[in-house]
Design brief:
Layout (H helix, E strand, L loop, with lengths): L1 H6 L12 H6 L8 H12 L9 E4 L4 H13 L8 E4 L33 E2 L2 E2 L10 H5 L6 H22 L8 H10 L1 H7 L1
Parallel strand pairs: 1-2
Antiparallel strand pairs: 3-4
Helix pairs in contact: 7-8
């Protein structure tokens, strides 16, 4: 995969195993419409006191394209029409590190698989499964929730967090440390209940 991205100059658009929604999200500057860049600059302009450096990237610039970009920016109220005009290099460097045989990738079903359906908010809450509960690294490597190591580490982390809360918020740090109780109650129920 890495070699294919290098061979394509950083682009993922020609890699068959990448889904279309990922391809739409990750584009190089040469694959983005520069009119969109000008529009986004105009949208940001309302929040900028002076001006911004707007760079235009055109593979093959012509007087017509440049004039069109300037007029689009002027109509949108940009203070700086274009700071730099970037063009694509006429030649590409030789890619010594890319193995051409490895680039012959067989199309898999990854690009054709549908992404997991997005959760939608309904009146009763989210549909679908609950999000995974984050677990500390020691709980993943241990022999399970009931092991002595994980229980001792839980007590250590709870005490450290409680001390840090007291240092930051004074003696009444109960409300600031409620998150630790919520997290650890779900991670290791037996250890959390024995500490209460």
């Amino acid at each position: 995969m890495k070699n294919r991205i290098i061979a394509d100059g950083g682009s993922v658009q020609n890699i068959p195993n990448i889904p279309a929604d990922i391809k739409a999200l990750y584009k190089t500057v040469w694959e983005i419409s520069q009119r969109t860049i000008v529009q986004m600059a105009a949208d940001r302009g309302a929040f900028i006191d002076q001006s911004q450096s707007l760079n235009i990237h055109l593979k093959e610039p012509t007087m017509g394209k440049i004039t069109s970009m300037h007029f689009a920016g002027w109509k949108l109220g940009l203070k700086t029409g274009m700071y730099y005009l970037r063009t694509m290099a006429a030649s590409a460097p030789i890619q010594f590190t890319v193995d051409q045989e490895q680039l012959q990738v067989v199309d898999t079903n990854v690009a054709r698989q549908r992404a997991a359906p997005k959760k939608r908010l309904t009146s009763s809450g989210y549909n679908g499964s609950y999000a995974a509960i984050p677990r500390p690294m020691y709980a993943q490597k241990g022999s399970g929730h009931g092991s002595a190591t994980s229980v001792n580490m839980t007590k250590f982390v709870q005490n450290s967090d409680r001390d840090a809360d007291r240092d930051a918020h004074g003696k009444n740090a109960f409300y600031y440390s409620m998150v630790e109780y919520l997290v650890f109650d779900q991670l290791i129920p037996a250890a959390a209940k024995s500490n209460k």
